[in-house]
Structures are given as structure tokens and as C-alpha cells.
């Protein structure tokens, strides 16, 4: 799932795990940030530390999937390299790319209400996260609750068309890689 901060990804992930038939894992990137030592990181080091955390996260997800596990990933594709990295790691036919949309007005209301995210974070990500423009399925949490979105995604899984969004994006954005399988 891809969407801005406060768009409702974690809420949908929790609902999905309750309704999916197969045993599934929710792997949030926040869990990986939380595993890092609490030593203070200088502003010069920070970009590299964050990048390595995201890259390690992608590889951990790919590793779980390679062992045959179903993974619910919540992601913020606010930097292009993150999608390019995932396109090279995940089996494109296996990926269901979900766009989690929400109006900016509602995002700002949620961000203020929860108080545990920097002010303006969702607005900064808003235009960038959906820049690649292609999904297998999309939901809008401005109008639908988390459980309804999870049901919509779950229903989509049983009748999903091919090529997947990931297959198409890999062909378009990673011509350096072999044809998407
Ligand atoms: N469909 C929804 N309708 C109304 N409120 C929602 C909905 N989904 C989530 N929320 C509320 O929005 C806030 C953020 O939700 P959530 O943590 O699921 O978002 P997120 O996209 O995972 O955010 P982050 O990336 O910052 O962790 C929470 O307070 C949650 O209760």
C-alpha cells in the first residue's frame, strides 16, 4: 500500500490481517526505524542512515516473500528511488499495488488530531507519493473506513488482472532489468 502519512495505511493493514484467508504479515517501515539504536545521528549522517534503513526494509520484505509468505507492506513512495528499488526486488506478478488516497484537508485534520507526526508531513508528501500514477487497486479513506477499504482490497485479490501495475512499471521504469515475471 502506498499513501501519504495519515492516509490510513496502518489501519487498513490491521483490518486486512483480520480478513485475509492466508496467514499474512504486516511489515511496517516504522518497525525498522524502531529497531535502530537510539544513538543520536548527525544531520550529515541522517540521509544515508535513513536510506539504508529503507533499503534494508525492502530486502527484508523481499526475503519474507521469497520464503512464500504473504506480506502487507505500508509504504510512502515519496522519493522515486524507493519505487525503483522495490521494482528490482519484488516478483512483479506477485505484487498488488494499492493506492491509498485521502483529501489533503482530511489528512491535515488527522495529522493535527493524532499529534505524533510533524505538522505538514502529509502535505509535503501529497503530490509526490502518487507521481508514478499506476495502481492495481485504489481506495479513498476520505470517504471509506479502514475495514471497507480492506474488504475492497481483499475482494480484488481473487480476480486480479494481468499484467500487474508492478509488471508495467518495471518495464517502463527499469528497462535495465530482464522482462517482468
Ligand atoms: N478510513 C479512515 N477514516 C477516518 N480516519 C482514519 C481512517 N484511517 C485512518 N484514520 C485515522 O487517521 C490516523 C492515521 O491512520 P494510520 O496510522 O492508519 O495512517 P498511516 O497512513 O499508517 O500513517 P503513517 O504513515 O503516518 O504511519 C489515525 O488517527 C486513524 O485513526
Automatic annotation (TrEMBL):
InterPro entries assigned to the protein according to its UniProt record, in alphabetical order: CPT, P-loop_NTPase
Pfam families reported for this sequence: CPT
Protein name as annotated: AAA family ATPase
Native source species: Streptomyces edwardsiae
Amino acid at each position: 500500500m502506498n499513501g501519504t502519512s495519515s492516509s490510513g495505511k496502518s489501519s487498513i493493514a490491521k483490518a486486512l490481517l483480520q480478513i485475509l484467508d492466508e496467514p499474512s504479515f504486516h511489515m511496517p517501515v516504522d518497525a525498522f526505524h524502531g529497531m535502530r539504536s537510539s544513538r543520536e545521528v548527525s544531520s550529515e549522517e541522517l540521509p544515508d542512515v535513513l536510506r539504508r534503513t529503507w533499503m534494508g526494509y525492502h530486502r527484508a520484505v523481499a526475503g519474507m516473500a521469497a520464503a512464500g509468505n504473504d506480506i502487507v507492506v505500508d509504504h510512502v513512495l515519496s522519493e522515486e528511488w524507493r519505487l525503483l528499488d522495490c521494482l528490482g526486488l519484488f516478483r512483479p506478478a506477485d505484487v498488488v499495488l494499492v493506492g491509498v488516497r485521502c483529501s489533503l484537508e482530511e489528512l491535515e485534520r488527522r495529522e493535527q488530531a493524532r499529534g505524533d507526526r510533524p505538522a505538514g508531513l502529509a502535505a509535503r508528501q501529497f503530490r509526490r507519493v502518487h507521481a508514478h500514477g499506476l495502481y492495481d487497486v485504489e481506495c479513498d479513506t476520505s470517504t471509506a473506513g479502514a475495514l471497507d477499504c480492506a474488504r475492497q482490497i481483499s475482494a480484488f485479490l481473487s480476480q486480479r488482472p494481468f499484467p500487474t501495475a508492478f509488471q508495467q512499471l518495471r518495464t517502463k521504469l527499469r528497462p535495465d532489468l530482464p522482462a517482468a515475471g
